[in-house]
Amino acid sequence: MRRPTSVPLDRVKFPLTLADGLRTTFADVIAIPLPAQLAALTRRLDTLGEEPGHGASATDTPRYTNRRR
Predict the structure, then answer these.
(1) Distance (Å, rounded) from C-alpha 66 to C-alpha 8?
(2) Which pLDDT tens digit goes with each residue over 2-14?
(3) Helix, strand, or coil (residue 36)
(4) CA distance 22 to 55
(5) Hey, which of 39, 55, 59, 68 would disulfide with 34, CB 3.0 to 4.6 Å?
(6) 30/22 Cα distance (integer angstroms)
(7) What secondary structure, in 3-state letters, does 15-69 show?
(8) Backbone angles phi, psi at 37, to 5 degrees
C-alpha cells in the first residue's frame, strides 16, 4: 500500500480555497428548487406573519425599566 503524498498546507491560501468551495456549494444548494410540500408550507408561514396581532410590533413596550432618570 502506498503512502499518501504529503502536500504542504499554505495557511494563507487555505481559507480562501475553503471559502471558494463553500461559496460554490451553497450556490449549488440554493439553485435546487424546493419540493412542492415545502414550498406550500413556506407560503403558509409567510401569510401567517401578515395577520394582525402576530409577531413583533413597533408599539410593543420594552420588557425592562429604565432606572437611569
Answers:
(1) 57
(2) 777 776 778 888 8
(3) helix
(4) 33
(5) 39
(6) 12
(7) HHHHHHHHHHHHHHHHHCCCCHHHHHHHHHHHHHCCCCCCCCCCCCCCCCCCCCC
(8) -65, -40
Q: What is the per-residue pLDDT across 16-47, written as a single tens digit (0 to 9) for each? A: 889 999 999 999 999 999 899 999 998 998 88
> Residue 21, Cα to own-chain centre: how many angstroms?
17
Owner of C-alpha cell 463553500: 22
Cell readout for 16 is 480562501
Residues 10 and 13: their CA atoms lie apart, in Å, by 6
CA-based R_g, the chain, Å: 25
Write phi, then psi, for 68 (nearest 5 degrees): -100, 70
Contacting residues for 65 by C-beta, under 8 A, at least 6 apart: none
Contact 54, 48 (CB under 8 A): yes
Compute CA 13 distance to the chain's CA centroid, rounded to the nearest angstrom. Answer: 25
